[in-house]
Amino acid sequence: MHIRPIHQGDAPRLAALLDQLGYPSSLRDVRHRLGYWLDDPASFLIGADDDGMLAGVAALHVTPIIEVTGKFARLVALVVDAENRKRGVGRALMAAAEERARAAGCLFMEVTSGRQRHSAHRFYETLGYTDTHERARRFVRSLTTPPTPP
């Protein structure tokens, strides 16, 4: 297995992996998303290639910080094919993502994960990540629908 950049030819397999992650996506949608991901210099898509088969993917985005000098990385997606879990694929992808983040000048890496993904939380903790939900909250608002009046 080796870690490599994702390319447009990975779209069919990436669509299958996103489905496993709980985000069903058409091949057309994935190709469209790859178009803007692959062109963004602050975004990285890396894959774990197991003899020509994409066994997992990590998506990483680098953001500058205004309150201190530096940048941070956010792992926006990590998925390992169900048949390849518990084989070190996730650890290899995380190590590669952290290396990319360091090379980009990031001070830390942030991971967000759905509250129901308990096994993923344990995985991140084994890698040294700390759940900071006691110190910070995350607020999200859709920008695709008009705001509701008060």
Task: From the structure above, extract its key features.
single chain, 150 residues, alpha+beta, Aminopeptidase, 5-stranded mixed sheet, 4 helices
Low-confidence stretches: none
Number of helices: 4
Q: Which descriptor suits the 3D outline?
A: globular
Count of distinct strands: 5
Structural class: alpha+beta
Described by strand count, sense and barrel closure, the largest sheet is: 5 strands, mixed
Strand fraction equals: 25-35%
Count the domains.
Answer: 1
Average pLDDT figure: 91
The CATH topology label is Aminopeptidase
Strand order of the largest sheet: 1-2-3-4-5
Distance linking N and C termini: 54 Å
Order of helices and strands: EHHEEEHEH
Tell me the name of the CATH homologous superfamily.
Answer: Gcn5-related N-acetyltransferase (GNAT)
Mind telling me the CATH class?
Answer: Alpha Beta
Q: What's the architecture, going by CATH?
A: 3-Layer(aba) Sandwich
As a whole number of angstroms, the C-alpha radius of gyration is 16 Å
Percent range of helical residues: 25-40%
InterPro entries: Acyl_CoA_acyltransferase, Bact_Acetyltransf, GNAT_dom
Keywords: Acyltransferase, Transferase
Protein name: N-acetyltransferase domain-containing protein
Pfam family, one: Acetyltransf_1
